[in-house]
């Protein structure tokens, strides 16, 4: 039952990607900006979780909640300080600012604590459970449970609450939403807060799963999560979940076939294929270009 | 008439700079450390100018320029180290193969716009890097040992040729086609400009000169490793172009020279360097989104000045 085990590994990895991709896709859906700093918020989440567990002796769930709260605050600060003035700027200016914010976060962290990696403490006794002949670690199950709960929560927020309704309205048409009395600035900040909180949660479970965190760890998962968001159709929440899971499973398959050094290339090959064949992604809608 | 005046003016300026620096090297006033900084400067200027034609002139946002530099570096290293051919052949071959890579990457990706193009070029650059990482013939992750063959003369001649070709391209019919794409792609398409053709041409020329820069880079240090050509290198090149001014050739040249000097002084504090870089990037974008020079050239600031500024 080798393949079942690989599938579970792939889904664990994929759910981390999916959590990061949700932030990308929500932010892109609402202000059409690729938030390059999102991967670094994920890194900050991992470090906050690490310090909460290792230094303050907190359990896993308090650490997760602290990481999510602090990341939400960081996300809102980034949006208010750097991106808010760029609402009407060119796309290139916004993208370069996002790259600048990303580099600033990475190297500020390196400046204050050095570039050395940190070993994540073990919070759960790593038991493995035998299901159908596959050894599934308890960590995988925790990751899956956390992801599922967060996604249900997100679905509830987006579809059943007032702020969720405002978010959907702003992403549909920001000007019309403003005319209807929606506070667009607050809605955008709320989107950043929710997306960053999810990235923070992803950071903590990434640390738990891979047990090694470092200041530049956010770059590659960040880019791959963006690939996942594009794969699912950027702007679409179910798309980001599906895209993340597909990407995680594909990467695990590539590794399992013995090409682990090519694993990172697989994500970018998927990206280029999807951009060439179906740029709107699996769940995306085709948009007509208007002059 | 006016154009050829600028052309000869630039050549004279280049000759004067070359003579002065060569005189200082022969006179022993510049030791190896400073010569190395000069060569680095030349490499960075070439990279900046070759990205300038893609981002500044054609308005296509590519952030995978280090990938083409890697192709030039590795191909030229193979030519000199494995085939034993002279350096000049290696530079040319590296540049041509890099241009071919640019063509291959450009044809599918340049259909994309804005953010998608940026991510696709970044993806291609990472794929190129991962390919070099996995090919044992070029040493894999450990890197490839390359002899030190680059001299100041090679680097300087390459810079002069790069700037001349790209300045002349910009002033030509093709260059105006590219500028019209930057200003409004749909409108220029409607005016009968073959936008795909011009975008691919600009991208290929950019890749060609990035290949030249890569070839000179690989023969300047004793080893090349795939990690050198990661996305941080691409961002470095991007910073030169953005800081100098999107659309200003002399701006990107000056920014490349200035930032090379700054990073040489800060080489003992790499974190501080990156923090300063990123803050400068954010502040420039927030308060002056067109870059320091905008689309102006230095020639339009001083009536008698020529581009290039002061070297050293």
TrEMBL record, chain A:
Membrane topology per the entry is: Multi-pass membrane protein
GO molecular function terms attached to this record: L-isoleucine transmembrane transporter activity; L-leucine transmembrane transporter activity; L-phenylalanine transmembrane transporter activity; L-valine transmembrane transporter activity
Question: CDD domains under this entry?
Answer: TM_PBP1_LivH_like (cd06582)
Q: Name one GO cellular component term.
A: plasma membrane
Kindly list the places in or outside the cell where this protein is found, as annotated in its UniProt entry. Cell membrane
Alphabetical GO biological process terms: D-alanine transmembrane transport; L-alanine transport; L-isoleucine import across plasma membrane
Pfam families, per database record: BPD_transp_2 (PF02653)
Transmembrane helix among the record's keywords?
A: yes
Major place of localization?
membrane
Query: Known InterPro entries for this protein?
Result: ABC_BtuC-like, ABC_transp_permease, BCAA_transport_permease
Q: Which stretches are transmembrane?
A: 6-26, 33-54, 60-78, 90-112, 132-158, 188-210, 265-284
Q: Which residues form the signal peptide?
A: none
Q: Which family does it belong to?
A: Belongs to the binding-protein-dependent transport system permease family. LivHM subfamily.
The protein in question is named Branched-chain amino acid ABC transporter permease
Name the source organism: Lysinibacillus antri
UniProtKB/TrEMBL annotation, chain B:
Q: Please list every transmembrane segment annotated in the UniProt record, as residue ranges.
A: 87-107, 114-132, 152-170, 197-217, 237-262, 274-290
Q: Which UniProt keywords apply?
A: Cell membrane, Membrane, Transmembrane, Transmembrane helix
Q: What is its main location?
A: membrane
InterPro entries, A to Z: ABC_transp_permease, LivM-like
Q: Does the keyword Transmembrane apply?
A: yes
Where in the cell does this protein reside? Cell membrane
Q: Key word Zinc-finger present in the record?
A: no
Q: How does it sit in the membrane?
A: Multi-pass membrane protein
Pfam families assigned to the protein according to its UniProt record, in alphabetical order: BPD_transp_2
Query: Any one cellular component term from GO for this entry?
Result: plasma membrane
MF (Gene Ontology): branched-chain amino acid transmembrane transporter activity
Q: Which PANTHER family match?
A: HIGH-AFFINITY BRANCHED-CHAIN AMINO ACID TRANSPORT PROTEIN BRAE, HIGH-AFFINITY BRANCHED-CHAIN AMINO ACID TRANSPORT SYSTEM PERMEASE
Name the record gives this protein: Branched-chain amino acid ABC transporter permease
Q: Lineage in the entry?
A: Bacteria, Bacillati, Bacillota, Bacilli, Bacillales
């Amino acid at each position: 039952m080798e393949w079942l085990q690989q599938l579970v590994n792939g889904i664990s990895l994929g759910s981390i990607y999916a959590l990061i991709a949700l932030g990308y896709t929500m932010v892109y859906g609402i202000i059409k900006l690729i938030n390059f700093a999102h991967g670094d918020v994920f890194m900050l989440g991992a470090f906050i979780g690490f310090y909460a567990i290792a230094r303050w002796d907190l359990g896993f769930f308090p650490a997760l909640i602290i990481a999510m709260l602090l990341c939400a605050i960081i996300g809102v600060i980034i949006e208010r300080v750097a991106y808010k003035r760029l609402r009407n700027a060119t796309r290139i200016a916004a993208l370069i600012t996002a790259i600048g914010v990303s580099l600033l976060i990475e190297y500020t962290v390196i400046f204050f604590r050095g570039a050395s990696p940190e070993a994540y403490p073990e919070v759960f006794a790593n038991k493995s459970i035998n299901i159908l002949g596959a050894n599934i670690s308890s960590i995988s199950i925790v990751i899956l449970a956390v992801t599922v709960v967060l996604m249900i929560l997100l679905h509830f927020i987006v579809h059943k609450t007032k702020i969720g309704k405002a978010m959907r309205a702003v992403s549909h048409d920001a000007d019309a939403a403003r005319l209807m009395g929606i506070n667009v600035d607050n809605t955008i900040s709320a989107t950043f807060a929710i997306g960053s909180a999810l990235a923070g949660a992803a950071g903590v479970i990434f640390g738990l799963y891979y047990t090694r965190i470092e200041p530049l760890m956010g770059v590659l998962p960040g880019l791959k999560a963006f690939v996942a968001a594009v794969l699912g159709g950027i702007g679409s929440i179910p798309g980001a979940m599906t895209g993340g899971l597909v990407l995680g499973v594909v990467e695990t398959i590539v590794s399992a076939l013995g090409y682990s050094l090519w694993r990172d290339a697989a994500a970018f090959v998927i990206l280029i294929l999807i951009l060439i064949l179906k740029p709107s992604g699996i769940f995306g809608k085709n948009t007509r270009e208007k002059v | 008439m006016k154009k050829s005046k600028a052309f000869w003016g630039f050549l004279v300026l280049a000759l004067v700079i070359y003579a002065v620096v060569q005189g200082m090297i022969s006179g022993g006033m510049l030791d190896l450390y400073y010569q190395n900084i000069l060569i680095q400067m030349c490499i960075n200027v070439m990279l900046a100018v070759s990205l300038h034609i893609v981002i500044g002139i054609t308005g296509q946002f590519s952030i995978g320029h280090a990938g083409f530099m890697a192709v030039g570096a590795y191909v030229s290293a193979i030519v000199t180290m494995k085939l034993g051919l002279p350096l000049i052949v290696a530079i040319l071959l590296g540049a041509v193969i890099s241009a071919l890579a640019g063509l291959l990457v450009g044809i599918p990706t340049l259909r994309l716009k804005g953010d998608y193009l940026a991510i696709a070029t970044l993806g291609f650059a990472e794929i190129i890097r991962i390919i070099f990482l996995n090919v044992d013939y070029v040493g894999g992750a450990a890197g490839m040992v390359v002899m030190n063959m680059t001299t100041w003369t090679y680097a300087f001649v390459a810079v002069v040729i790069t700037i001349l070709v790209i300045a002349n391209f910009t002033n030509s019919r093709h260059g105006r086609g590219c500028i019209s794409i930057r200003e409004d792609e749909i409108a220029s398409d409607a005016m009968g400009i073959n936008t795909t053709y011009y975008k691919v041409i600009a991208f290929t020329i950019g890749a060609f000169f990035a290949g030249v820069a890569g070839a000179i880079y690989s023969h300047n240090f004793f080893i090349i490793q795939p990690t050198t050509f990661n996305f941080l290198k691409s961002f470095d090149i991007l910073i030169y172009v953005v800081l100098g001014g999107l659309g200003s050739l002399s701006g990107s040249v000056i920014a490349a020279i200035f930032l090379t000097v700054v990073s040489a002084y800060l080489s003992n504090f790499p974190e501080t360097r990156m923090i300063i870089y990123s803050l400068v990037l954010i502040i420039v974008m927030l308060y002056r989104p067109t870059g320091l020079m905008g689309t102006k050239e230095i020639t339009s600031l001083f009536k008698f000045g020529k581009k290039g500024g002061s070297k050293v």
